[in-house]
UniProtKB/TrEMBL annotation:
This is Galactokinase. Belongs to the GHMP kinase family. GalK subfamily. One of its GO terms (cellular component) is cytosol. Keywords: ATP-binding, Carbohydrate metabolism, Cytoplasm, Galactose metabolism, Kinase, Magnesium, Metal-binding, Nucleotide-binding, Transferase.
């Protein structure tokens, strides 16, 4: 199948793409106005778009083999059940809400970003869709605005109370650098990956969905903790001792956010002043290891499969650090490993993980 056969139309007018992302540090900090450190992955989502000739919107997902045909009046009411279509619908609607005219379109989407693995397949779909619409209708919106529209679409139309990290990473990051982002001010810096290291991403085989998991619950807990501490967001607490007065589980939730923000800032300082010795890699890796322990024990978003996979990674020679990546409750792990060893390490770890009774998949590093 392709655009022409699905829509019985000539070649699409535009094609746009956006990558998935993996987060090295700064998990569950973005919706707390905190700091994050993601990078893009090679896997991408591609959309092809052309104008519809029958005043209907038509969406097709190659991966799901699902087609949505909806009339303009029904489209305005948001009458659609297919999950992927709600993300596309949301992107169009948020543009309309600020005054842009988006005529009915045909949109064909295909993606190599794994679904349900914590690698921001939804953000990649949103950013690719908005990029394609920007090009098709010549809209005067920049890459930061693309990310902001994408976040708004996910919150309002997919009903996931996400932060801005995923969309900013998909819109601004690349595979050769880290994106340091202050999610409150949107101050950002493009930083080199730690020299002498490569990234390995392994899927745990345990899928998860954000809206159906504890993600929204964790966000609500953080908001409650911030209110009790008398601050706008947990980002405003830098001394971890200040959270000790909170009742459980708010104490542990807040402790994760405060320590995680501090880990991102420490990593930023280490990268900007790195001496290009192994010690700087080890320091970065130790921060990743501490992040996973915090996500497991204080934030309670890990699962046995992720803990097993991270434990194998952390014990493997050549691995500087490893942690779950994404919201948790399943998904994938990310590891910082010695450059040149990524393929051997990934295959060795996957073999041990499968031997432990799980079914994983190497996504980056093979």
């Amino acid at each position: 199948m392709n655009f022409q056969t699905i829509f019985n139309q000539k070649l699409p007018s535009v094609e746009a793409l956006a990558p998935g992302r993996v987060n090295l540090l700064g998990e569950h900090t973005d919706y707390n106005d905190g700091f994050v450190l993601p990078t893009a992955i090679p896997q991408q989502t591609i959309v092809q778009i052309g104008l519809s000739d029958d005043r209907m919107y038509h969406f097709y997902s190659e991966n799901l083999d699902e087609r949505v045909d909806i009339r303009e009046e029904s489209f305005r009411a948001g009458e659609m059940q297919e999950e992927y279509a709600r993300y596309i619908f949301g992107c169009i609607q948020v543009l309309k809400e600020v005054g842009y005219t988006i005529s009915p379109i045909n949109l064909y989407v295909k993606s190599s970003v794994p679904l349900g693995s914590g690698l921001s397949s939804s953000a990649a779909l949103e950013v690719a869709t908005l990029r394609g619409i920007r090009q098709l209708f010549n809209l005067p919106i920049n890459d930061v605005e693309i990310a902001q529209f994408a976040q708004k679409a996910e919150i309002q139309y997919a009903h996931v109370q996400c932060g801005i990290m995923d969309q900013m990473a998909s819109s601004l990051a690349d595979t050769e650098h880290m994106l340091f982002l202050d999610t409150r001010t949107l101050e950002r810096r493009i930083l080199p990956l730690p020299e002498g290291a490569k990234i390995v991403v392994i899927e745990s085989g345990v899928p998860r969905t954000l809206a159906g998991s504890g993600y929204n619950e964790r966000r609500a807990e953080c908001e409650q903790a911030a209110q009790l501490l008398g601050v706008k967001a947990l980002r405003d607490i830098t001394d971890v001792n200040l959270v000790e007065t909170l009742p459980e589980p708010l104490r542990r939730r807040a402790r994760h956010v405060v320590t995680e923000n501090n880990r991102v800032l420490e990593a930023l300082q280490n990268v900007e002043t790195q001496t290009r010795h192994v010690s700087s890699l080890q320091q970065f890796g130790e921060l990743m290891n501490a992040s996973h322990a915090s996500l497991r024990d204080d934030y309670e978003v890990s699962v046995p499969a992720l803990d097993t996979l991270v434990d194998i990674l952390q014990k493997t020679p050549g691995v500087f650090g490893a942690r779950l990546t994404g919201a948790g409750f399943g998904g994938a792990t990310v590891a910082l490993v010695a450059a040149g060893e990524e393929k051997n390490i990934a295959e060795q770890v996957l073999e041990q993980y499968n031997h432990a009774g799980y079914t994983g998949n190497i996504l980056v590093g093979a």
